[in-house]
Amino acid sequence: MNKLYRSEKNKKIAGVIGGLAEYFNWDASLLRVITVILAIMTSVLPVLLIYIIWIFIVPSERDMK
Q1: Where does it localize?
Q2: Residues 47 and 35 sit within 8 Å (Cβ to Cβ)
Q3: What residues form DSSP beta bridges with 60?
Q4: Closest Cα partner for 21 from 38, 5, 45, 37?
Q5: pLDDT band at 63; cut points 50, 70, 90
Q6: d(Cα 42, Cα 58) in Å, to the nearest integer?
Q7: For 24-62, how does the pLDDT look when each residue is reduced to its tens digit (9 = 90+)?
Q8: In degrees, to the nearest 5, what angle opens at C-alpha 5 toward C-alphas 19 and 53?
Q9: Using CA atoms, how far apart are residues 57 and 46, in angstroms rounded to an integer?
Q10: Which of 6, 18, 35, 38 has the fewest C-beta atoms lying within 10 Å of its C-beta?
Q11: Cβ–Cβ contacts within 10 Å for residue 33, how many?
């Protein structure tokens, strides 16, 4: 079973989107584009807050090993 973590090898800022992409077996670039579109559609703040919260809640890949 997959575990959700912040990716160390597929990250741009904190690895949140990369970790989600690995968890769902999706392309990280596609998920990043979807996230940016969602952020624009919701005036950025909700997506930014969720991202920041996930940085602290979701463990890092190296913490999982």
Answers
A1: Cell membrane
A2: yes
A3: 6
A4: 5
A5: confident
A6: 23
A7: 999 999 999 999 999 999 999 999 999 999 999 999 988
A8: 90
A9: 16
A10: 38
A11: 12
What are the backbone angles phi and psi of residue 4, rounded to the nearest 5°?
A: -85, 130
Render the chain in DSSP notation, one character per residue.
-----B-SSS-SSSSHHHHHHHHHT--HHHHHHHHHHHHHHTTSHHHHHHHHHHHHHSPBHHHH-
What is the token pair recorded at 45? 């703040």
The two structure tokens encoding residue 10: 């597929």
Q: How far, in Å, CA of 65 to CA of 55, rounded?
A: 18
Determine the residue type at 58: V
- Identity of the amino acid at 6: R
